Amino acid sequence: MSGGARRLFIGGEWVEPDGGHYEVVNPATEGVVGLAPEAGGEQVRAAAAAAREAFAGWSRTTPEERAGILSRAAAVLRRDFAAHAELAQAESGATTATARGMQVAVAVARFERYAKGALEPVETALPPQIHEAGPMGGAGVVGAVAVRRPVGVVTCITSYNNPWANPAGKVAPALAMGNTVVVKPAPQDPLSVYGMAAALEEAGVPPGVVNVVSGTDSAVGEAAVASPDVDMVSFTGSTAVGQRIGEVCGRDMKRQLMELGGKGAAIILDDADLDAAVAGIGTTFSFYSGQICTAPTRVIVQRGVYEQLVDKLAAYAAYVKVGDPVAPGTVVGPVISAAHRDRVEAYVEDGRKEGARVVAGGERPALGKGFYVAPTLLADCTHDMRVVREEIFGPVVVVVPFDADGPEDAEETAIALAADSDYGLIDYVWSGDVARAFRVARRLRAGGVGVNTIARNMEAPFGGFKKSGVGRDVGSYALHAYSELQSLVWPG
């Protein structure tokens, strides 16, 4: 499927890009999916200015008006579901099930969720205070209410691993709260985001409320962050880029929502259900081909079950089918680009040189075309190895064994190993004793912990400790993230 040649979406108009177009490449076939627009710096600033101009009117619309537009956008996306899924698959390399169920379907669900979210109360009544007479005046009762107000213009910089769910998770709650947005999609797969903008336009979003500018040049993202018209930046991506964005935001005190890197620790205690643990950890091989920050990539396993767990993970890696994401039965598709494939392969080679044992994978699949990486399992790892400490963002699992003198020492050792990381997004604990698993989970320095599961509750707050991010979103927490608190106080 071809995405054609797209134009920028600025101020309610589809605009020819100053920098021409660039090719979006299908990671599975290496063919051209379509042509994406390369915005110039002035066009990015014009998009932010359009969002600023539109903010006054949009922020004063009723919650019902905003809810109606978001609901209609969801309906438009659902109507064109098949075409959107086909395009998402072509530009991201996702399998058919992932493109349909985890990309476009999640985007539709998020627009529906925040259509309802626009109607959630924004006021919180506070207990009145009784003031005695004093230098500030006579005695009296003072009432107060805390009200959530929109932040203003939000720049949304999205990740390449999910060109639908990730931008929808930013745009929908931001609009629901009365903000306007400038969306800068990932350069690898921006075409889907333009499809989202077209759906919002059809749903009746006013000009300037949603703007989309893309490009391969880092100057596009930099202009979208630095513009004086921007009040907040919502970013999903690497910690290194997030740190640079944070530096720019700090100069003007721009608000930030950052969902950054992860190196999820999966603690396996010796009383764990190993089959359940392997089913969860194995998703690193299959889900988005490991290109997901929440993956349980760093397995910390008690020595008594170490060899058994490694054998089971190796069998899982050998079982999953690698190949064309369009083909029935494919579980592992390509990674996003040749450059990223080379990066993942370099990490595997580093692990081999550092002494890790390559139990599965380690060689490029013989598929002719496409940016494929074999599901790779590295055992006998130590916690000082780069493959253990750094985010690889591919279908690579590293296993670190540990010894313990008794159950209590096992917990303490596992917690210490998990904590020895710059990251703290989502960790996992597997134990047959649920009380024990929760006891360990409460001590992990991570924004989320899966207890005997990799599942997520999509109303629970999502975000990271340490260098895994700033702030929380998902569910009603996203509405809080895209708002500022204002206190209203009055005499009783």
UniProtKB/TrEMBL annotation:
A single GO molecular function term of this UniProt record: oxidoreductase activity, acting on the aldehyde or oxo group of donors, NAD or NADP as acceptor
Domain of life, source organism: Bacteria
Domain annotation Aldehyde dehydrogenase: ranges: 14-487
Pfam families to which the protein is assigned, alphabetical: Aldedh
Keywords associated with the record: Oxidoreductase
Family note: Belongs to the aldehyde dehydrogenase family.
Name of protein: Aldehyde dehydrogenase
Species this protein is from: Streptomyces venezuelae
